[in-house]
Amino acid sequence: MRNAAAVDELATLLGNRLSRSKSDLDLHGRSESHFPLTPPDAVAYPETAEEVAEIVKICARHGCPVVPWGVGTSLEGHALALTGGVSVDFARMNKVLKVNQEDMDAVVQPGVTREDLNVELRATGLFFSVDPGANATLGGMAMTRASGTTAVRYGTMRDNVLAMEVVLADGRIIRTGTRARKSSAGYDLTGLMVGSEGTLGLVTEMTVKLHGQPEAVSSAVCSFDDMEAAVNAVIATIQMGIPMARIEFVDPAVAAAFNAYAGSTLPETPHLMVEFHGSEQGVAEDAERFREIADDFGATGFEWATQPEDRKALWTMRHNAHFACLASRPGARAIVTDICVPISKLAEAVEETRADVAAASIPGPIVGHVGDGNFHCILLFMEDDPKEHAEAKAIAHRMVERALRLGGTSTGEHGIGAGKLDYMAEEHGEAWDVMGTLKQAMDPQNILNPGKMVKPR
Amino acid sequence: MRNAAAVDELATLLGNRLSRSKSDLDLHGRSESHFPLTPPDAVAYPETAEEVAEIVKICARHGCPVVPWGVGTSLEGHALALTGGVSVDFARMNKVLKVNQEDMDAVVQPGVTREDLNVELRATGLFFSVDPGANATLGGMAMTRASGTTAVRYGTMRDNVLAMEVVLADGRIIRTGTRARKSSAGYDLTGLMVGSEGTLGLVTEMTVKLHGQPEAVSSAVCSFDDMEAAVNAVIATIQMGIPMARIEFVDPAVAAAFNAYAGSTLPETPHLMVEFHGSEQGVAEDAERFREIADDFGATGFEWATQPEDRKALWTMRHNAHFACLASRPGARAIVTDICVPISKLAEAVEETRADVAAASIPGPIVGHVGDGNFHCILLFMEDDPKEHAEAKAIAHRMVERALRLGGTSTGEHGIGAGKLDYMAEEHGEAWDVMGTLKQAMDPQNILNPGKMVKPR
């Protein structure tokens, strides 16, 4: 009712940039995850921050939910309109507004995808580093505090967003942060917005850090007898201060899936995939030192990829891990878990998870951003088999319990969305109430992505 | 009145760990800055988080201000009890609780100083990187979002605090963050607390990141014909991706002050002081590449310091810049400014500031963390000369205006305290109101460090 009145007003404001077509509603009611379809009442396609502010004001007047939408690659249903309302799709706000080469930053609209930005940057010698695998929008990545394979060297979205323009729940437009690289001027509102999943405001512009394209890059894959040896090699490498740009773990099941999917010939053992960025000489030295450490932990089958095409093949294989795993069990759907623990607990967390999966009737290959202590188990279940689905959910649940017991977090990079809300109380204790206090203060009507992040009111 | 009642109750709770001696009150009413004496009504010396919570609860009941205190090294009067109340001195909460070598983190109480922590870490091969010059407490450094010479490589306090235990305005104790290196689980409360200057809560425990002591270190100083050449050399070095651990600018007046104070023989021209951390070979290569770039911009008089004692002499000189400048004008006091701008605007900001100082009757030597775009002008005035004091304040004011005009911030690392509050509206616009909303939500009685950070109520 209240939503319908808001939608009528929005139609007047936006004309044919307000969609109520069934296909559009269904598209925005679904995500790359296992949640039931929850379509919004309408989809708005704003073109400016001022239009976003008008949309929010209209919705605020009617108490109608407002849920931001990037390209729908989130894995925890963050952008689902759980109680209907308006999905604000940033597809038409997809411009790179400015690249400041000397300052190594770019001002972008939230609908720009990371690949689009990197295409625009090609001639500059700079690149945007955060790479969650999917070609997500920068707005969506900021809102989920995304990271990925390069975070160990270049940081997560928390580290790579300098400033934002945000539309608040009452339609005010604010600017947080500046293009200065650091500041001690007041509460870090940019940091508060990053990872807030659209519950505190809608980002309409961002300034992101860029990095210099390395002069030289070297990648390698190598094999270990067991998980623990691989993780200990990682710990030793970090402690030696060898600057890894990526360091990824894949378990024997993923190696097998790669072989089947990409025609590789990896032994079906635990592997590390590493990459070094730097000068020709620096990279060569880093690689040599890594090799010595890995040798100490029994690594074998080193394959170095110094040519761009070889490297591309290696990381395409890694990026396709999700699809390779899905293909290893035709017809299956996946729950992708996402725990992150202190690195000293990583071997234990992975080993316990593997044992848990081994005792189950479903497969669950494991890949991990081991430099950060973050890993994913891809739990493959048949959708028409409720027992399997329950089994997958139970393993995922035990993984979170394990992460929290080991001093870690329920999600390293995928976020809370609709999937992890039940763990917030356990992970944060009273601090979760503080999040509720902040949400109440900034969105007293609870119209911004309601049902997410904080305790339901 | 209300403060007196709170202090009486606190005396019962703390016994002789509540001080009302005049000398103690005066000590806590003063800071390393130019603000008038504002003593608290009492100084509390808690030993546990639970005691801090009790203190806050008693003060909340009476509406009595609570102001946290480290060792009083802040430059903007953050820890001054502007309206009286209780100064909570963390001197007795000064333990390093745990060092997790494998995870490269340490759990500390807020009263530990950065030097104390590094002494404890000596045998581990690890170090704590943030170095604001003064031997501040880690709690104080977190609360002001401190940084210093190594931030360009290892980040500021924002980047180096993983987790916190915090006492809120109602006496609840919460934990923010975990020891996992990254998380997407909810609002970044740790990030919100860092830089909040005691206005949202009192930190009672922190987990901080540590870094591996580099295998090799190389430092150098070199001279340039003009400021712009020095800054352009910095920009080129950053863009080449050469990983500098420190890169500091000093102007001709500082070089002269060094010569007088430390007996150095630097030409009285602009200088860069740089340091590289890494492997023997990597450091040698970085240094060589830097030298080539610097040569392109006309650098002369390179002096390399590869031996520990030479390096120590170099950085002691830099750390003593403040005292060297003070000594250059016997009897003078200083206003230390702290603006930070996008690096492309750095030459312009420094050049305009130098011209402004040159036209004034007081000296104002300039030092800067140029890798971050952050610099300080040390404005030396005679305290008994109101005209000079006014002149210093006017130059400092114009520096902030300049920073904001150039897209920067009023403070790169010193914080707001009592000195920069007047610039918050201009720097943040409506976003400053949002800070007020957050403060109101988390401290509705306004007892935590009142009069700071947000719009006075």
From TrEMBL, chains A, B:
<dbReference type="Pfam" id="PF02913">
    <property type="entry name" value="FAD-oxidase_C"/>
</dbReference>
<dbReference type="InterPro" id="IPR036318">
    <property type="entry name" value="FAD-bd_PCMH-like_sf"/>
</dbReference>
<keyword id="KW-0274">FAD</keyword>
<dbReference type="InterPro" id="IPR016166">
    <property type="entry name" value="FAD-bd_PCMH"/>
</dbReference>
<dbReference type="InterPro" id="IPR016169">
    <property type="entry name" value="FAD-bd_PCMH_sub2"/>
</dbReference>
<comment type="similarity">
    <text>Belongs to the FAD-binding oxidoreductase/transferase type 4 family.</text>
</comment>
<dbReference type="Pfam" id="PF01565">
    <property type="entry name" value="FAD_binding_4"/>
</dbReference>
<feature type="domain" description="FAD-binding PCMH-type">
    <location>
        <begin position="35"/>
        <end position="213"/>
    </location>
</feature>
<keyword id="KW-0560">Oxidoreductase</keyword>
<dbReference type="InterPro" id="IPR016164">
    <property type="entry name" value="FAD-linked_Oxase-like_C"/>
</dbReference>
<dbReference type="InterPro" id="IPR016171">
    <property type="entry name" value="Vanillyl_alc_oxidase_C-sub2"/>
</dbReference>
<keyword id="KW-0285">Flavoprotein</keyword>
<dbReference type="InterPro" id="IPR004113">
    <property type="entry name" value="FAD-bd_oxidored_4_C"/>
</dbReference>
<protein>
    <recommendedName>
        <fullName>D-lactate dehydrogenase (cytochrome)</fullName>
        <ecNumber>1.1.2.4</ecNumber>
    </recommendedName>
</protein>
<dbReference type="InterPro" id="IPR006094">
    <property type="entry name" value="Oxid_FAD_bind_N"/>
</dbReference>
<keyword id="KW-0809">Transit peptide</keyword>
